[in-house]
Amino acid sequence: MNSKSATKKISVEQLTRIALMGALIYASQVALAGLPNIELVTLLIVIFTKHLGKEGTLACFVYVMLTSIIWGFNIWWFTYLVVFPLFSLFVYKIRKIDNWIIWAIINGSFGLCFGAIFAIPYIFVSPMYAFNWWLNGIPYDITHCIGNFSIALVLGKPLDKSMSRIVKYIKK
To answer: Residue 27 sits in which domain range?
Structure first.
């Protein structure tokens, strides 16, 4: 097997889309930074991944890198580097779901689990510390859950339809 068949090249057009999606995800986070655990990041990852597959997943890496460049690298960075692309791959596997109530539940569940996922690296410091860290963050996780659910319920379907039209235009 030669190297050309082993890897599929990304076109300049795709690379540009990936960069723009990652930047849009980051810009949405910054725009809502004043609201505690209210974000569009999760919904945008769902929309981009549902319609553009691996490009949506790669946009997660752009988002993580932009976030890291601005806020610095710390233990949270490793979790971001794993959690968002894995969430995107999960979305890709179930992308055919067309019911936005289900997508809202998925978005809300991701918000609710966020603190528990972020406590995992702290297990290596101390399991009790990780547990306490997660426990103290539950009110924020509940806010995150409600925010993600509500945003997906209100904006999910219109953004999904808009992205469908954009993708049809792109594919011409």
So the answer is: 12-170
